[in-house]
Specification:
With 303 residues, this protein is α/β, with parallel strands linked by helices. It contains 10 helices and 10 strands. The chain is 37% helix and 14% strand. It has a 6-stranded mixed beta sheet with strand order 6-5-4-7-8-9, sandwiched between helices. A two-stranded antiparallel ribbon has the order 1-2. InterPro entries: UPF0353/GerABKA_families, VWF_A, vWFA_dom_sf.
C-alpha cells in the first residue's frame, strides 16, 4: 500500500497554502453564527440551556462545515494531485528521415517503366508505407539542392510533393548531390531529433570524403541487372560513409532500408517531452458539485 502511494504528489503544491485562510474564515464564520456566544458571559450555562432551543446542540452538517469542506476539496483539486504518468503526445518515438530525390533528365529514362523517376516515387511510397507515422522530409536536387518539405508524419504530403517534381522545374542542370546531402543533414540537425538520409539516384558525381553528420543510404534507381555496373554510386557511398541498396522487383529493397532507418544513428532525444504526470484533480469535481448543491436547499444559508 505504501509503495502504491509513493508516487503521489501535487503538481502545484503552493495552492495548498490557501488552507490557512480557509480555516481562518471557517473559524470566524462559525463564531458569527453562534447566537448564544454573547449570552454565555452573562447567564449561567445550566440556566442558558433552558432558555435556548437547540443553541447548545450544533450538528456537524452545517453551512460553515460544508463551506470548509468545499473549500478544501477545491484547493486540493487545483493543487493537481497525481500518482501516474503517461507518455507525452508530442514525444517523437520514431527516427526521422530525409528523402533526397534526384530530378535530372537521366531520371526520365524508360529502362525502368514507366520512368526511373516514377519508379523512385513508387519505391518512396513503399518506404513511407513501411514507416507509417514516422516523420519524413524531402529534398530535390539537380544542379542545385532545394528543401521541398521538412520532416512530417503525413506521408501523403511527401508523396504529393514528390509527384509534382520534374527535371524542367529545376532551376539549374547538373549533379549537386553533395549539396543535397548537406542540406538534408542540416535540416535533420535543426530538428534536433537525429535521423537518417536516403538518396534516390541513378548515378552520382565524384565526391570528396565528407561527413554528413547523419547515416546515408543510396537507393540505386537502376535496373537490377545494372546495379553492379554503377561504380559511381559505390564511390559516392564510400565518400558519404554510407551504403548502396540495389533496386528489386518486390519490396525487399524498401524493407531493408526501413529496417536500417529504424536503427541507424542514435535514438532521437526528446528534451522536455518525456512522460508527464496526469493531473487527477478533475476527479474531485463531482464531489465539489455535491457540496455546492447543499446551498440550493431552502433555508440552508440561514440555518
Amino acid at each position: 500500500m505504501i509503495e502504491a502511494l509513493a508516487p503521489f504528489h501535487f503538481l502545484r503544491p503552493w495552492w495548498l497554502a490557501l488552507m490557512l485562510p480557509a480555516l481562518g474564515l471557517w473559524w470566524l464564520q462559525r463564531g458569527e453564527v453562534d447566537t448564544t456566544a454573547r449570552w454565555r458571559r452573562e447567564i449561567a450555562p445550566e440556566l442558558l440551556r433552558h432558555l435556548t432551543v437547540g443553541g447548545d446542540r450544533r450538528g456537524w452538517l452545517s453551512p460553515e462545515s460544508l463551506f470548509l469542506a468545499g473549500w478544501i476539496v477545491g484547493i486540493v483539486a487545483v493543487a493537481g494531485p497525481t500518482w501516474r504518468q503517461m507518455p507525452s503526445p508530442f514525444a517523437q518515438a520514431a527516427r526521422p528521415a530525409m528523402l533526397v530525390l534526384e530530378v535530372r533528365p537521366s531520371m526520365m529514362e524508360r529502362d525502368l517503366a514507366p520512368t526511373r523517376l516514377d519508379r523512385a516515387r513508387q519505391k518512396m511510397a513503399d518506404l513511407l508505407k513501411l514507416r507509417e507515422g514516422a516523420p519524413s522530409g524531402l529534398v530535390a536536387y539537380a544542379g542545385s539542392a532545394h528543401l521541398v518539405l521538412p520532416p512530417t508524419p503525413d506521408a501523403s504530403v511527401v508523396l504529393s510533393m514528390a509527384g509534382a517534381l520534374a527535371p524542367e522545374l529545376m532551376p539549374r542542370q547538373g549533379d549537386a548531390l553533395a549539396d543535397a546531402v548537406k542540406l538534408a543533414a542540416d535540416t535533420l540537425a535543426k530538428g534536433g531529433q537525429g535521423g537518417s538520409i536516403v538518396v534516390f539516384a541513378d548515378s552520382a558525381p565524384a565526391l570528396q570524403d565528407m561527413d554528413s553528420l547523419a547515416p546515408v543510404t543510396l537507393f540505386a534507381i537502376v535496373s537490377p541487372d545494372r546495379a553492379d555496373r554503377e561504380p559511381s554510386l559505390e564511390a559516392a557511398a564510400g565518400a558519404l560513409h554510407g551504403d548502396v541498396v540495389a533496386l528489386t522487383l518486390d519490396d525487399a529493397d524498401a524493407t531493408r532500408i526501413a529496417r536500417r532507418l529504424a536503427t541507424a544513428g542514435p535514438p532521437p532525444p526528446a528534451p522536455g517531452e518525456e512522460a508527464r504526470w496526469v493531473d487527477a484533480g478533475y476527479w474531485l469535481t463531482p464531489l465539489l458539485a455535491l457540496l455546492v448543491l447543499a446551498w440550493f436547499r431552502r433555508g440552508w444559508v440561514l440555518a
